[in-house]
Specification:
This protein is mainly α. It starts with 18 loop residues before the first helix and ends with a helix. α3 crosses α5. Keywords: Acyltransferase, Transferase. One of its GO terms (molecular function) is ubiquitin protein ligase activity.
Length: 312
């Protein structure tokens, strides 16, 4: 922008020149509301108890200051990244540029342990930064063996990213998808503990509550699994939800889970996982998937409840 740019570009409007300002303002308002919600969760206070200030009484102390380059531009990158794409499209594009591998089980356990001691805002901040990194990686690519921390700090000039020292030292660009899933899982667990909406990208058609009969059926199937097996299956289903459910396919139409069925879709996902060098599906997990009925009382929208069952 310069002195010749029409002022209409900075006046929010839902069409025309002011559309960009409108989207940015909407995004900032959403960020502010999310910040207040997180503050209430951390402080264990009710949202309605927050003080309210009338417009005529506003002063500088009530406003949020920001640096245009350091704070505003990453926000713009994030809103473009999240509003125009889905997890499936983003990570498919990323995998076309950089092959992705899972973080080793030993390292992932250490990362998870570190994440549990971090604050919710720190966790969300790391995910926002990781979103920006993924946006660039899927566009320009990088050496799969190069450290992810070097890419973020040296190339993107973003400091203080990792909430996990182990991730900072170990994770490479080929691990970015696995790390993102790990952070998203920890975030979801915390939201679930506070009864907050955790799958905002999944339609309500997949969130219906289980009947007592359906709950009993699930306990029959999963009742003999060990805690470690339940946790492993929960993580697989969580990953499956984020990358496969309620998202556009190549024809930009919603994937029809009524047609494919949860069992068939999950089996396909296990057969063709989104990682290279993936270990074979454990026999016990394949037996559990095989035990799911092709149709009937276990429908595709029960996957959210399956995930929560694993969290308990």
């Amino acid at each position: 922008m310069d002195d010749k740019t029409p002022v209409s570009y900075i006046l929010p409007a839902n069409k025309g020149h002011g559309l960009c300002s409108y989207v940015l303002l909407f995004f900032l308002l959403e960020k502010q509301n999310l910040f207040l919600q997180k503050y209430c969760i951390e402080g264990r206070i009710k949202y309605d108890s927050l003080p309210k200030v009338k417009v005529k009484d506003l002063s500088a102390i009530h406003l949020i200051s920001y640096h245009p380059d350091r704070d505003l531009l990453p926000m713009i990158d994030t809103v473009v990244y999240r509003s125009e794409t889905t997890n499936d499209i983003v990570f498919n594009t990323l995998r076309d540029k950089i092959r992705q591998e899972r973080i080793s089980p030993a390292v992932i356990c250490q990362i998870k342990e570190e994440l549990r001691s971090k604050t919710f805002p720190d966790l969300c901040g790391s995910m926002d930064t990781l979103d920006i990194a993924i946006m660039f990686l899927k566009s320009v690519g990088a050496d799969p063996e190069s450290l992810l921390n070097d890419f973020i700090v040296n190339l993107l000039q973003i400091d203080h990213f990792f909430v996990s020292q182990k991730a900072q030292m170990y994770c490479k660009c080929k691990h970015v998808q696995s790390l993102w899933i790990t952070l998203a899982l920890e975030k979801t667990k915390r939201l679930e503990k506070h009864y907050e909406e955790s799958f905002d990208c999944v339609s309500f058609a997949f969130k219906e509550k289980l009947s007592e009969e359906q709950r009993c059926a699930l306990y029959d199937i999963f009742g003999n699994l060990q805690i470690e097996q339940l946790a492993f299956m929960s993580e697989i289903i969580f990953e499956f939800i984020l990358l496969n459910i309620d998202i556009p396919n190549e024809d930009e139409e919603l994937k029809n889970m009524d047609r494919d069925g949860f069992k068939e879709a999950l089996s396909t996902y296990l057969f063709d996982p989104p990682y290279l060098n993936e270990a074979l599906t454990p026999d016990w997990l394949q037996h559990v998937v095989d035990a799911l009925p092709l149709e009937g009382y276990i429908q595709e929208f029960f996957v959210v409840m399956l995930l929560r069952h694993g969290f308990s």
